[in-house]
Amino acid sequence: xxxxxxxxxxxxxxxxxxxxxxxxxxxxxxxxxxxxxxxxxxxxxxxxxxxxxxxxxxxxxxxxxxxxxxxxxxxxxxxxxxxxxxxxxxxxxxxxxxxxxxxxxxxxxxxxxxxxxxxxxxxxxxxxxxxxxxxxxxxxxxxxxxxxxxxxxxxxxxxxxxxxxxxxxxxxxxxxxxxxxxxxxxxxxxxxxxxxxxxxxxxxxxxxxxxxxxxxxxxxxxxxxxxxxxxxxxxxxxxxxxxxxxxxxxxxxxxxxxxxxxxxxxxxxxxxxxxxxxxxxxxxxxxxxxxxxxxxxxxxx
Length: 301
Fold this sequence. Notes:
This protein has 301 residues and is mainly alpha-helical. It has one domain: Orthogonal Bundle (MetI-like fold), CATH 1.10.3720.10. The protein is 72% helix and 0% strand. It has 13 helices and no strands. Helix 8 (165-189) crosses helix 10 (207-235) and helix 10 (207-235) runs antiparallel to helix 13 (270-300). The protein is globular and about 75 Å long. Residues 1-8 have low confidence and may be disordered.
């Protein structure tokens, strides 16, 4: 019997064998990802409330979508989210590339410094949020001590100010995820052939010219890829912000993901929040596609 099975397996093509191993994984992914998405889309066209299971579910068509897109508060949360994304991605791009250029050079303690820099991204965002809450504490926090060392502000409440709280989140996210951008940029830098720099030196190109015409074009696709991943993650940022500010003070740091959670699990407006989730998904998917096309054009140049 065993010999017959082996004989039959030998008769299969490589493609057939590959499908035998891949199919269970594909089915699992469909069950975990595709089914909830389809269910959420179907719920977005209803008035369903998760805490009122006995209530009749009515089909409302596009009313949820029209209500969301016509609500001023939604656009305010989108603006806050977009601002958060812009500043975090800008800072992570600049600092990450700078650190990658530094660590690409050989010096004593390079490996130890790289390990220390990478440590923050290994932590849970929720843990990072709690950790920085103590650092931002206006009475005993280290951040308050550092600020007052340079200028005496007294009790400096970073996360209690509606003006400073968004920047507090930007600082924490940049501290945590800049190492991710740095690692991808570092991989790009180490993939550049040495003969390009040798040829540039023969042509008497200085360090700045080598950076502009060799280093930057070579590492740019890697940097753009890192920013794509970070942009998608930042758009749905939730746990770290909840631990730091819970969306406050007021609504200064209430990102779209936090508002979605409140609509879904505090007000229990399941149909409405499903429509909100679909809008966020389409937004991320649309911007991601445009970004990839732009990135491919830059890469092909």
